[in-house]
Specification:
six-stranded antiparallel β-sheet; 2 domains; disordered N terminus; D-amino Acid Aminotransferase, Chain A, domain 1; 7 helices; alpha+beta; 15 strands; Phosphorylase Kinase, domain 1
Length: about 300
């Protein structure tokens, strides 16, 4: 398999860079260059080897959704594919297919989560309190049931560790009520548009995490958009409420790590070839199902 395609870290000298778990963000002054690497994290630990083409899948899916969503402005200026921005020609091999030139914004200090199905932390809370992020729900719902309507459930942003769910009122305290009302409406609109389309393509978007930022006085959609890293994607033909669902994400990695005697603290263990390949195939399948296009690379 093409492990030589794995990019664990980009290297563009002379530019301020912030390295996240997956992305390298270069500051170009009035713009940002966001490069999605092939790094993969699980349990908040970055693994020593990555997943071939993962960064390209994430970037191409984000571009697809930015182009797809109607009535919502976003931060994408240019998707880098076969042509580098001026001054970056010698780094084209690091950027092609996995980089975006975007507007710099004043980032909203919350994660905007929209849930269409009862899964993850929402399911755990429901079992204890019949609610999700304090929002009361009908009795008798099963794990992974579709919710009566999509729920907006904000969370704090964590530099380290997990984001923490907060109430709508707590989110308003971090900014203001008008802003949170606006991002709630727009986040649900993005989720509804994309989830309806994805269902036609055989993919259930169970939930997703969106980010927003101010471009001047206008809130626009930023960061990634509805990728396997920021969303739960389930194959619709295998959907069955009452249990965990198979998914198009890093579940291969999580399942493998759960078999190890590992403390879930750095450093992470090296991933075996079959886990790497299985995860890569799931990411690529998500791209192809959603976009209706063949992924331009092969494993």
């Amino acid at each position: 398999m093409a492990n030589d395609h794995v990019i664990l870290q980009t290297n563009i000298p002379g530019l301020p860079v912030r390295r996240g778990k997956v992305r390298d963000v270069y500051d170009l002054g009035d713009k940002l260059l966001i490069v999605a690497s092939d790094r993969i994290s699980a349990f908040d630990v970055v693994m020593p080897n990555g997943i071939p083409f993962k960064g390209e899948v994430l970037t191409r899916i984000s571009k697809f959704w930015f182009d797809f969503v109607k009535g919502i402005r976003h931060h994408l200026i240019e998707f880098i594919d076969k042509k580098a921005p001026p001054g970056f020609e010698s780094y084209l091999d690091q950027l092609t297919g996995r980089a975006m030139l975007v507007r710099k914004t004043r980032v909203l200090p919350i994660e905007c989560v929209v849930r269409g199905y009862l899964a993850g932390s929402g399911w755990k809370e429901y079992q204890n309190a019949q609610s999700v992020c304090g929002i009361k729900l009908p009795a008798g719902l099963r794990q992974c049931d579709k919710l009566p309507e999509p729920l907006f459930t904000p969370a704090t942003k964590a530099e380290q560790g997990h984001d923490e769910n907060i109430s709508f009122e707590q989110a308003c305290e971090l900014t203001d009520t008008n802003t949170i009302e606006t991002v709630r409406q727009r986040s649900i609109s993005v989720y509804t548009q994309t989830a309806d389309y994805a269902r036609q393509r055989g993919v259930i978007i169970a939930d997703t995490k969106l980010e927003w930022g101010f471009d001047g006085n206008e809130l626009i959609l930023i960061d990634e958009a509805l990728t396997p890293d920021s969303s739960r994607f389930w194959p619709a033909d295998q959907y069955q409420p009452g249990r965990d669902q198979p998914s198009f994400d890093k579940q291969f990695v999580r399942n493998y790590l759960e078999t190890l005697n590992w403390s879930k603290t750095p450093p992470g263990p090296m991933l075996p070839a079959d886990v790497v390949e299985g995860t890569a195939r799931k990411y690529i399948e998500a791209y192809e199902r959603l976009t209706g296009q063949r992924f331009p690379k092969t494993l």
